[in-house]
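A quick aside before the break. I want you to see a complete sequence-to-structure record at least once, exactly as it would be stored in a machine-readable document. Don't worry about memorizing anything.
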Amino acid sequence: MAGQAQPVTRFVMLGGFLGAGKTTALLRVAREYTEAGKLVGIITNDQAEGLVDTETFRAQGFDTEEIPKGCFCCKFDELVAAAGRLADGHEPDVLLAEPVGSCTDLVATVINPLKRLYADRFCVAPYVALLDPERAYSALTGTGRAGFSAKVTYIYKMQQNEADVVAINKADTLSPERLQELTELVQRNFPKADVIAISARTGQGFDRLSRILDGAGEAGANPAVVDYDVYAEGEALLGWLNATVDLASRESFDADRFLLALADRIREGLADSGAEPAHVKILLRCGDVVAIANLVRGDQGPELSRRCDRRVNSGQLTINARVEVAPDVLRERVEQALEAVTGDYGLSVDVRSFESLAPPRPVPTHRTKKGVGSL
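That is the input. The structure line, written in tokens, reads:
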């Protein structure tokens, strides 16, 4: 607006359900801003401590703050404080935020309160929610519930319902006909949102995504009407596990093959329990080298999102698992898989932390009811 000083920092939040590809997308966005000469800060968010995503961003050289023990909506003051810490010494041009993948109602509890309370510090970009095409197709056609129960699927749908833009990620895996069909399906179900297709892996569609994030479009135009009882019950159905362990061996082992074997053993154990993984991330850090394996569906094997391509003798393993199953069952399955695979590889294990939980009921710090003007 003419005559009005612009806020210093562009606030960009990319949401979407667990396994939608938010981390990969944010990494690409962060690199593009950096290549354009912008200073980037990143804030990650989780229900527990010890986040693979935080290590991933830091391994790529980005200044990163982590907010554990609750979602951005319930940790709003911590979000603002984290932004302040990133600004110490060098105010970032762009602040990228990755919310918890099971969180919704972010427009009313994060975006609009930021616009109202901190308009002098942040220029908030339109809210983009990513979705995984296979889960979306299953949920929106009625052929399934995206692999989850109805209350978890409720959260999944509400995330797209409040978005300014819904980004169909992994578009490179779809035929043109399938992509067109899914685009029309998403547009019918979420008519208030713009729908775009992207691939965080290849960069497809990121020119358009960048224009949206840098544009003057309204952020938070679609605050959701959320049933917090259903929301809380849906989150409580998700088991959450974060673990950090040190590995060592007298003989070197293939880091990439080890990660894939562990992720697949976890998948098999969850399948035996009838549990559907939302996302399992496993990171192995060996000095300054990092390898990452991802599991996003029970009917598909794990993949490496980052390769190590070497044999190692030791490393620190970080496991983040989000699964629709009781936390104690999730812990048991991960422990069994870890014991089996480290035994196969002849590795010694020193557990630093091992935490499993179900997310508590969300209690937002702020919540707008009808948009920016009514806190």
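Two observations worth writing down. The two ends are 23 Å apart (CA to CA). Residues 85 and 150 are 39 Å apart (CA to CA). We'll return to this after the break.
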